[in-house]
Hints:
Order of helices and strands: HHHHH
Amino acid sequence: xxxxxxxxxxxxxxxxxxxxxxxxxxxxxxxxxxxxxxxxxxxxxxxxxxxxxxxxxxxxxxxxxxxxxxxxxxxxxxxxxxxxxxxxxxxxxxxxxxxxxxxxxxxxxxxxxxxxxxxxxxxxxxxxxxxxxxxxxxx
Length: 139
């Protein structure tokens, strides 16, 4: 079995998503992603997690679903697109698929305008990251 890269490692990698997530402003999103995927948090990420959730214990396992309350311009659409691309390209679903079945990553948006914004981010990631498989270049 191939070793999988964590979503935080993919976020930091300059050959992958790193160019879009530089700077300290993404710290809260890093804490969220660590919690969502059940990853070990740095002390600063754990502090952010505890501050924004009022929980003392950081998650030890991944969640299947998350609901967020974020203001405008918080980066929700970009993070949704990032998570979708990460799940589509860096997870192996073959053990869960029947022969010939194709996995689908779905993003649900409140309306068409919001869905279009997220789809454009997804397409941007797929087109701009050379390491992603060539068969998806036309997306």
